[in-house]
TrEMBL record:
The lineage of its organism: Eukaryota, Metazoa, Chordata, Craniata, Vertebrata. It comes from Poecilia mexicana. GO terms for biological process: oligopeptide transport; protein transport. This is Solute carrier family 15 member 1a. Residues 645-676 have a biased composition (Basic and acidic residues). Gene3D superfamilies: MFS general substrate transporter like domains (1.20.1250.20). Pfam families: PTR2. The keyword Transport applies. The keyword Lyase does not apply. PROSITE patterns: PTR2_1 (PS01022), PTR2_2 (PS01023). The chain crosses the membrane at residues 6-23, 53-74, 86-108, 120-141, 162-182, 202-226, 281-299, 333-351, 363-384, 567-587, 599-623. GO terms for molecular function: symporter activity. It is found in: Membrane.
């Protein structure tokens, strides 16, 4: 027996090898989700892509991450085995993460040392190559690691195996949670060799290091693993069987051939009847998968559109400042909270109320909750849009006025007039990026003034001149103003996304503090819609995930034949990939001018799809695949017994005929002898 062939060292009743696998999974998930958390901001602010291109590439990458598991499963089952597949593809994965970290080092091509890369082609090519390798790596090992961990347990260790899978999925959410907290903090730091900018290289470098640790830890456990040999991939066999049935049906499309009960029955000429019956059961479930991609279309936008939405919001939570990409942390926190609450409280309560809340009904509710989450996002976007300044279009121009005097002035236009208060200026033509602020100083004195702070040096400003706009982070900043031997300090608390002009009046008197003398003009108001308002939409999308994803996997496994679970797992991952491609298609076709209208469009599409899914679900009959397989095997066995009985009867009949023939010959011989 298989269990007798295992020689493993146990610790607390568990194989020691699984501890290496659990650490490996935690580090790998930290690496993946940490890199993905800052990816869309890297596209927009480092590579300087617009929102649509950044989101398109982001969702293309995610889609490939859910397509490659099918390839990984085929390689593991048909060629290399799980262990070697994990090793080789983890190396590919680590190389991809290193490539991403290197692509984010701006100093490599920053020849003018202004803090931004000059040769974007180099960074784009290297980052795209890195993402391709990461997609191959993370997707390729996804179906192998959990299954490889399950292989380490013997037939008598069912309880330990179940505990392992619980801890395994806890590590996935733990890695995701920590990485989405840490990597945005690393990204927000300023780093560089010659000039400073946002530290995307560190935000990608730490996940790369974690992936290297993941690989080393997995290799260290090599001598303790139980390694199964490749036994062939069921997905290939299923694909060939379906292909043969379709081809055979097409060859016999003429009316002279009798019809079969099911089109898969045309494969009976070549394939086992049990396999065909199992495929029929799996196809019933896969048919229900057709509407499911629309859920993932909405769900995965929390890492793209919702993150960009957060960049236009206020992340000040008192003593804590939340980065826009850290809002994604809410999802794993709520997952860890809602799953036990749903399982132990909500679902049992619904059952006690006498409601028949089937898995397919839960999935429908999950879709509705995701649609409501996007309605919330649209409402928030409407509030954000009210706070955004209106900038000139491509066919318009903007004229700026600066009042350097101490009294208000009026500027008259042909059809309008502008009243400009003392020491005031007109606006910028863009909203500051990444939640930062833009500031400048205007020197109204008759002598040059030098302005500096801990964040940077703003140079010497000549009389009646102004400095260029400079970027400054949120929080309190103190500026030192110096003219000759005289100096004073000016402090201000900055929010997110504001633009300010500071006037140094001609009447400025230097001293210990010039706080009251400096006049502040708000060119663009800071973000005023708080990030906390995103929490309801994250709650709804996560509740929808628990209802839809967790229940969907449970339903698929309960309705799948014993050897078709990997086929349905591949189909489930495929729905996620297709959902991410739908984001690209809808956004490209719709071309909606306002972001809130796009949110409403996606919500409407999901509601329509959920109605279609509920209708399809109403025609579905729940089955017990194990019982059907057992009944089918019994029937086949009975048919074989009947066939054997018929063969035995035929053989017995032939033997009796032979004996009768021999007896008749003996009688004839006796008769002949008597006659003679």
């Amino acid at each position: 027996p298989l269990s007798q062939a295992r020689f493993v060292t146990l610790l607390f009743g568990y194989p020691i090898s699984i501890f290496f696998i659990i650490v490996n999974e935690f580090c790998e998930r930290f690496s993946y989700y940490g890199m993905r958390a800052v990816l869309v901001l890297y596209f927009k602010y480092f590579l300087r892509w617009d929102d649509d291109l950044a989101i398109s590439i982001y969702h293309t990458f995610v889609a490939f991450c859910y397509l490659t598991p099918i390839l990984g499963a085929i390689i593991a089952d048909s060629w290399l085995g799980k262990f070697k597949t994990i090793i080789y593809l983890s190396i590919v994965y680590a190389i991809g993460q290193v490539a991403m970290a290197v692509s984010a080092i701006h100093d490599i091509t920053d020849s003018d040392r202004d803090g931004s890369p000059d040769n974007l082609t180099f960074h784009v090519v290297l980052s795209m190559a890195g993402l391709l390798l990461i997609a191959l790596g993370t997707g390729g090992i996804k179906p192998c690691v959990a299954a490889f961990g399950g292989d380490q347990f013997g037939d008598h260790q069912d309880k330990q195996r179940r505990t392992f899978f619980s801890v395994f999925y806890l590590c996935i959410n733990g890695g995701s949670l920590l990485s989405t907290i840490i990597t945005p903090i690393l990204r927000a730091q300023d780093c560089g060799i010659h000039s400073k900018s946002k530290c995307y290289s560190l935000a990608f470098g730490v996940p790369a290091a974690l992936m290297a640790v993941s690989l080393v830890v997995f290799i260290l456990g090599s001598g303790m693993y139980y390694k199964t040999k490749p036994e062939g991939n069921i997905m290939l066999k299923v694909s060939k069987c379906i292909g043969f049935a379709i081809k055979n049906r097409y060859r016999h499309r003429s009316r002279k051939y009798p019809k079969k009960e099911h089109w898969m029955d045309w494969a009976e000429e070549k394939y086992d009847k049990l396999l065909i019956a199992q495929i029929k059961i799996a196809l019933r479930v896969l048919l229900l998968y057709i509407p499911l991609p629309m859920f993932w279309t909405l769900f995965d936008q929390k890492g793209s559109r919702w993150t960009l939405q957060a960049t236009t919001m206020d992340g000040n939570f008192g003593s804590i400042v939340i980065q826009p990409d850290q809002m994604q942390t809410i999802n794993p926190i709520l997952i860890l909270t809602l799953v036990p609450i749903m399982d132990s409280l909500v679902f049992p309560l619904i059952k006690k109320c006498g409601l028949h809340f089937t898995p397919l009904k839960k999935m429908t509710v999950g879709m509705i909750l995701a649609a409501l989450a996007f309605v919330c996002a649209a409402v928030i976007q409407l509030q954000i849009d009210k706070t955004l300044p209106v900038f000139p279009s491509a066919s318009q121009s903007q004229l700026k006025f600066l009042n350097m005097g101490n009294t208000p002035i009026t500027v008259e236009f042909p059809e309008n007039q502008l009243n400009l208060a003392a020491a005031q200026a007109s606006d910028l033509i863009y909203k500051p990026q990444e939640g930062n602020n833009e500031i400048r100083f205007i020197n109204g004195m008759s002598t040059p003034v030098t302005v500096s702070s801990a964040a940077g040096h703003y140079g010497e400003i000549e009389p009646l001149h102004y400095s260029n706009y400079s970027e400054i982070k949120n929080g309190r900043a103190t500026f030192t103003l110096q003219s000759g031997s005289q100096s004073c300090e000016y402090s201000k608390d900055f929010g997110f996304g504001g633009s300010y002009t500071f006037f140094i009046p001609s009447t400025l008197t230097f001293g210990p503090n010039c706080q009251e003398s400096i006049t502040e003009s708000v060119d663009i108001k800071p973000n005023s819609v708080h990030m906390a308002l995103q929490i309801p939409q994250y709650f709804l999308i996560t509740a929808g995930e628990v209802m839809f994803s967790v229940t969907g996997l449970e339903f698929s496994y309960s309705q799948a034949p014993s050897n078709m679970k990997s086929v349905l797992q591949a189909g489930w991952l495929l729905t996620n990939a297709v959902g991410n491609f739908i984001v690209l298609i809808v956004a490209e076709i719709a071309k909606l001018p306002k972001q809130w209208t796009e949110y409403i469009l996606f919500a409407s599409l999901l509601v329509a799809v959920s109605i279609i899914f509920s209708i399809m679900a109403s025609f579905y009959t729940y089955i017990d695949p194990t019982a059907i397989e057992a009944e089918f095997k019994k029937k086949v066995h009975d048919d074989e017994d009947d066939e054997d009985d018929k063969k035995k009867e035929l053989q017995k009949s032939k033997e009796m005929e032979k004996r009768d023939s021999v007896s008749s010959d003996d009688e004839d011989k006796k008769y002949v002898q008597t006659s003679m």
